[in-house]
Design a protein that fits this description.
alpha/beta; 7-stranded mixed sheet; two-stranded antiparallel sheet; 12% strand
Length: 465
Amino acid sequence: MSTTAFAGWEQPLQDIVLPVKETYKDIFHQGSAAEYENAINGAKELVTNFLHRNRQPFSGVSSTALKAAFAAVDFDTPLPDYESLLQEVQELYVKHATAFHLPAYIAHLNCPVVIPAVAAEVLIAAINSSQDTWDQSAGGTLMEQQLISWTAREIGFGTVADGVFTAGGSQSNLMGLLLARDHYAITHGGHNIKKQGLPADASRYRIFISEKAHFSNHKGAALLGLGEQALVEIKTDARFRMDAAVLEEAIAREIREGNIPIAIVATAGTTDFGNLDPLADIGRIAAKYQLWYHIDAAYGCGLLLTEKYRHLLDGMETAHSVTIDYHKSFFQPISSSAFIVKDRQYLRLLRMHVDYLNPKDEDYDDLNQINKSIMQSTRRFDALKLWFTLRLMGKQKLGAYTETIIETAEKAAEVIGLDPELELLSYSDIGVILFRYAPEQYNTADLDALNQYIKRQCLTADWYW
């Protein structure tokens, strides 16, 4: 019989385990299988009803009405059973949740999700691995690293590339700016910002972005102590893509003014317009001025899946770092993102030694993903969702989905362009269509008010099919 011995006493192991099984049925362990199954079945039924009953993307509920319903919730009084709990969640959340999967939903970049990835979520939550160190998630670590290597190859990086899964594109963009800042300081001035703080000339650092770049660049510059003043916004062309000629002029101007260009951030798939900056041209300029080149491909990364439109990402392979959002363009549930660098040596700028996480006497240092993360130690195993998806569906099927999105957007743009009462505001490289209702009899101010009214009605009225 197994026994346990602590401080001079022995007791049969089963005498300790059995009471735990009977008393703590709500905790996930070997004795709570029936409770787990009951809870999962209830949640599954809620999801199934969500799929079958929804006919419109949003219920139209007002914030006032929903806040009033929440006022009755008392966390000090637990509900009696799962049936009561699920009914409450149905009324407060599921009933009013945005249904991204419906064809009438066209408002944001959130993608519908594939079923293999949803199935993976069940394993992720239940097994609850943390991806910070090898000894907490052996197979999970290798799965994540293999998916990072696969993504790096698709980008066009070589065998020394590396990266890590992140919480989202904003975090990945912050990592890109941080490495750009620290790499410049240590390469050009021998200054270690991690150890010594910002150098005296940091106020003159300049980072070049498109005027249509994601707002996370502004937040990142502020968090890094450079301030938004470090960002130089470059005008865009008629398709809202960074103008490479204007970019080079801006770099030369900042140098003349005594400032220090350190990086360029290009956007592969803008949030507002779905267009891609000229990546190859920007890459040549970055190389000419020896600047860190980061590409925010949070949205446009889906083009990696398709042979037909992959050429739109030509030049991505020249970047030092790339942001990837699988949960925007690989049909993954939130969150599933990554930060990829061309050379794993860059990630050493993030490394920090902690005895209880990466002790110096271990022989698997390259397997600790925490060495590559910016501020995440405990980190969920989001990579499993992508593993499920690629292993069951394959790149080609996902690529076909991406092609369908692009071609549907093109057809929609054609229809809008032919309608005399609609105004097409921009063509998209990927799948964002901007248009408005614009009958000739209205002036500009009236059109703005009219379209705001239409937007409000889309949120509140019960008009969907």
